Backbone:
């Protein structure tokens, strides 16, 4: 890689990238004042990671290596996972994105795992678990002659712990929960997130086996096995279980599926242990107590004059492998068990972002056979060069300690430094920093609308599309706004056909193409590929079933699907037809007569717990019934107090104008914010949700009726922090504007 010898490279960022960096990455003092620039951050990270070379060679020129690492990041050609950017060269020093913890079948082991989870989440990592070792519900507990509550009840303990840590103000933690399909509680597990009240800090996946999938194909029964005794505990019809998984995934995107036997088929160290779980987004199968350090090459930066720059890509791969192996060395691990297991295998996960950008630059349509073939070619090159780089490191640093007895050793292959080298992870916020498309996903949108603080509307446009549109003479603000409204450029007469062909977005692409692309990358990826298969809202259950079958037949290691509007739980936008149904006609509005307020009213005050503190909701009545509502925050002032006051004024106006109380509750209940409070049935999702619950309590206590919760249909989620567009990636929701993530 060419080195700038005259002066350090100054990285260039978009406004969105700077927003994300300032909010989530740059070092701050105790008062929240930003203490470093993005260039300083890259310098901090480069210096800390390069310093690892001195462990292997006391005379190593780490300054020269630091410059190479800095240049690679400053050019936005490679970025490590978020914890490395945040913590390298700082006191915390925890650089791993993901961990897997064992959950044993005893109270001591379970609560040790809960404690370890808290420590990992506090340090900024996510955790994966297999709950398959836990005895099923209602099974015998010999030590107390009682009965077991089963794995799902203990998952809730982990969920509560995660929620508590999140509310403590640290980086959001995320969990993956996996249960084998032959566990006796599997049907309850499949449905455990159906009501959307519980386990909101978990992604869940069913661990499918080859035996099960063969039984699905032949429509036969399969055995359930009690993990405590190892004995058969019953049978289920495989096709019915598979159909239940599919139906629930269609309903709300979960559970996903992972093919456990395939994870272990490619396990490089079976003599060390079996793989039972993955990290939260599913792309990194790990042994118990193992962690992985991830990074991604920006393929959009690997194109020159309409051709892939293979030499530049090769140099980036070799330098990135060196970088990630150094991360393993300097990392401060949260547990000694994790330290020992991670350094024993030294797994790294080099992946990519900007795949859709590369295709645009090469004039290749994402949903073409050429794109699938190119995916295989590019990933094979990265895998081969990544393994070559790891073998070069092994010559001077030695192979990973568990090499003897590994798959490499048994096949007589040359020593290698890292047990795995390639992983394709969701790139979430780092792709925003790099101004690239995310992972191996297609473009999420060509243009979308952003509302800023002063209520101005800004139109965000894909920078490559805008450049082409201006060069070809069809750019206009009006066209960009229309694209944002439609969500696609397909069928727009103003846009040339060749441009429509290249700029395809996630919902322009068939689910079958999504799976074919995932399979193409999986073919040459050591670990797994994080990829979301997007469905339109009107997709059928059979459509989802077909994709799950395709994932199996095309040798994927798992699959995550998202049907538009099925899972969004943030502040949401309703379908236009529902907005129209709720909107009064002009004649009805003119017919309303607002009731005048008497001098004296009787009322009731309800104390509600919210994530912003106590909220006091007062409901007053006149002779005709419910009349007005006032709110008071425990802490005066601030956004929450003003928003709650605004809600109270609008509710009062609605009631005095004849709107029924239950209609108000319908509109307010279920609205979420970034700081919920409580758990289970007592969970309050936001101040608006608290007001709805207070009104319900008032109606119930004063002769009214409980409001039956009605399910609304939504099209898109909005970020709870900035109101920006949210896209689903690898089982997680990420805001492309401010970097908010459901998982981290």
Residues:
């Amino acid at each position: 890689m060419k080195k700038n010898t005259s002066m350090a490279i100054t990285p260039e960022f978009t406004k969105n990238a700077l927003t994300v960096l300032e909010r989530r990455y740059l070092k701050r003092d105790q008062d929240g004042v930003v203490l470093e620039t993005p260039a300083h951050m890259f310098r901090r990270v480069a210096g800390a990671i390069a310093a690892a070379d001195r462990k292997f060679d006391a005379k190593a020129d780490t300054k020269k290596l630091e410059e190479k690492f800095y240049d690679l990041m400053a050019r936005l050609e490679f970025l490590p996972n978020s914890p490395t950017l945040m913590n390298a060269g700082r006191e915390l020093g925890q650089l791993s994105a993901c961990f897997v913890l064992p959950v044993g079948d005893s109270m001591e082991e379970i609560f040790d795992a809960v404690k370890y989870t808290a420590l990992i989440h506090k340090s900024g990592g996510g955790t994966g678990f297999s709950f398959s070792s836990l005895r099923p519900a209602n099974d015998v507990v010999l030590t107390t002659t009682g009965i077991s509550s089963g794995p799902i009840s203990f998952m809730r303990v982990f969920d509560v712990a995660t929620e508590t840590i999140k509310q403590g103000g640290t980086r959001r933690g995320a969990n993956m929960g996996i249960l084998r399909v032959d566990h006796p509680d599997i049907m309850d597990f499949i449905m455990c997130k159906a009501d959307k009240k519980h386990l909101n800090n978990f992604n869940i996946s069913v661990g499918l086996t080859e035996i099960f999938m063969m039984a699905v194909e032949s429509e036969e029964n399969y055995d359930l096995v009690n993990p405590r005794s190892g004995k058969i505990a019953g049978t289920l019809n495989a096709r019915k279980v598979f159909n239940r998984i599919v139906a629930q995934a269609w309903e709300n995107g979960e559970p996903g599926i992972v093919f456990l036997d395939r994870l272990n088929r490619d396990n490089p160290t079976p003599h060390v242990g079996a793989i039972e779980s993955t990290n939260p987004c599913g792309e990194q199968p790990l042994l118990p107590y193992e962690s992985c350090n991830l990074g991604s090459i920006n393929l959009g930066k690997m194109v020159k004059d309409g051709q892939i720059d293979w030499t530049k890509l090769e140099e980036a791969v070799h330098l990135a492998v060196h970088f990630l192996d150094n991360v393993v060395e300097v990392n401060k691990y949260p547990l000694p068990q994790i330290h020992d297991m991670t350094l024993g295998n030294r797994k790294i996960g080099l992946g990519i972002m900007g795949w859709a950008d590369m295709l645009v630059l090469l004039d290749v349509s994402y949903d073409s056979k050429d794109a699938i073939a190119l995916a295989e070619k590019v990933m094979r090159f990265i895998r081969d060069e990544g393994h070559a780089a790891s073998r070069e490191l092994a010559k001077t640093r030695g192979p990973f300690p568990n090499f003897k007895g590994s798959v490499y050793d048994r096949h007589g292959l040359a020593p290698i430094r890292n047990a795995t080298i390639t992983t394709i992870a969701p790139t979430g916020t780092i792709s925003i920093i790099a101004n690239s498309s995310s992972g191996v996903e297609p473009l999420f949108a060509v243009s979308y609308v952003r509302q800023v603080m002063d209520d101005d509307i800004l139109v965000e446009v894909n920078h490559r599309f805008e450049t082409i549109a201006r060069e070809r003479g069809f750019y206009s603000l009006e066209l960009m706004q229309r694209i944002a409204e439609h969500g696609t450029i397909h069928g727009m007469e103003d846009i040339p056909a060749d441009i429509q062909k290249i700029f395809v977005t996630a919902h322009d692409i068939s689910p079958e193409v999504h799976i074919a692309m995932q399979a193409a990358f999986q073919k040459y990826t050591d670990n797994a590929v994080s990829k979301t298969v997007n469905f339109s809202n009107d997709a059928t259950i059979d459509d989802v079933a077909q994709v799950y079958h395709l994932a199996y037949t095309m040798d994927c290691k798992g699959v995550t699907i998202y049907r538009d509007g099925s899972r969004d739980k943030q502040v949401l936008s309703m379908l236009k037809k529902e907005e129209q149904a709720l909107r009064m006609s002009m004649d009805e509005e003119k017919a309303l007569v607002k009731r005048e307020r008497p001098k004296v009213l009787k009322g009731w005050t309800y104390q509600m717990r919210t994530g912003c503190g106590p909220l006091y909701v007062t409901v007053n009545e006149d002779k005709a019934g419910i009349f007005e509502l006032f709110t008071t925050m425990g802490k005066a002032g601030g956004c929450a107090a003003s928003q709650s006051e605004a809600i109270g004024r609008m509710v009062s106006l609605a009631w005095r104008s004849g709107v029924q109380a239950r209609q108000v509750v319908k509109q307010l209940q279920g609205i979420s914010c970034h700081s919920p409070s409580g758990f289970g049935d007592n969970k309050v999702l936001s101040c608006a949700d608290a007001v709805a619950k207070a009104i319900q309590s008032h109606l119930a206590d004063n002769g009214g009726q409980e409001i039956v919760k009605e399910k609304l249909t939504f099209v898109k989620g909005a970020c709870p922090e900035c109101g920006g567009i949210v896209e689903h990636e690898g089982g997680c929701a990420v805001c492309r504007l401010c970097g908010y993530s459901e998982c981290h």
Summary: The first helix runs from residue 15 to 24.
